Amino acid sequence: MLNIDLHSHSSCSDGTLTPGQVVARASERGCKVLALTDHDVLLGLPAARKAAIEHGIHFVDGVEVSVSWDGLTIHVVGLNVDPDNAELQQGLASVRSGRMRRAEAMAADLLRAGIADSLPGALAFAGNKDMISRTHFARFLVESGKVKDIKTAFKKYLVKGKPGYVPHQWADLNDVVNWIRNAGGRAVLAHPGRYQIGKARMQRLLVDFKAAGGEAVEVVTSNHTPEHVIQFTRLAAEYELLASCGSDFHGPGEGYADIGRLPDMPGACKPVWHDWAIVN
Ligand code: AMP
Ligand code: MN
Ligand code: MN
Ligand code: MN
Fold first, then answer.
1. How sure is the predictor about 25, in pLDDT bands with cuts at 50, 70 and 90?
2. Which of 75, 52, 50, 58 has the alpha carbon at shortest distance from 222?
3. 136 lines ligand 1 (CB under 6 A)
4. Is the CB of 135 under 6 A from ligand 1?
5. CA distance 184 to 87
6. Using a 6 Å cutoff on CB, does residue 66 contact ligand 1?
7. Which ligand neighbours the alpha carbon of 13 most closely?
8. Predicted pLDDT at 269
9. CA distance 118 to 116
10. Residue-level pLDDT at 279
């Protein structure tokens, strides 16, 4: 099957490699079609596209947008978006604008828990200071010896109910899907198996996503179990959504899957790329 990876991050958001390095790694590992989908930012796309041409692989302009839906944070990937689209650029700028304030509040909270200087510490890991994220705080907590790894940093400090967690209002689902569609892209519900919601709420999410204009769902992604793959293959068919796949690569040894090593998508799925000229 075609080695295709439609979800990855660079140092323009919370990945550790530059866009050019992400593309080089994808190419080395046999990936033929790659989307860079940095959180809330399009900054890395031109450099990634240039590198993809040099390496002879197909490149898909992407983004992963942070959304608040029904009190939950969810992620919506946009594929084949126009990086020059002004409405999308402005929308993403508005999503990013609250990040520094949230980071300051997180640092204040961590200080109360006895951890000093976490904001400069986190910023030192941010390749793009405009896109400061919890991942950068996690890397600081590991580096300063507070926790042994990124996973523990999230478990002990950066999730709901722990010091260092600050709730945040992200973008509206309808707005985000509209930005993506108006920029010529296709909206994909990212890693649905990661949302800790029951069956009824998942169905409501799929109904709302589809009503907003969403067209696809990630069926194969790094922390989907084989059961998730079966579940979302079925739900995609039921809700007439296309299926996508992506590693959610953040960097070598960063916990999520590495680029170009995903299980095949089940044959029953209709791939999000079924009508893309570059793969057909
Ligand atoms: P933010 O958008 O700043 O809230 O950060 C979200 C990012 O944190 C995600 O994109 C992941 O890269 C990372 N993340 C969230 N939860 C975990 C976790 N349990 N373990 C490792 N990384 C996580
Ligand atoms: Mn991330
Ligand atoms: Mn995500
Ligand atoms: Mn991601």
1. very high
2. 75
3. no
4. yes
5. 11
6. yes
7. 2
8. 97
9. 6
10. 86
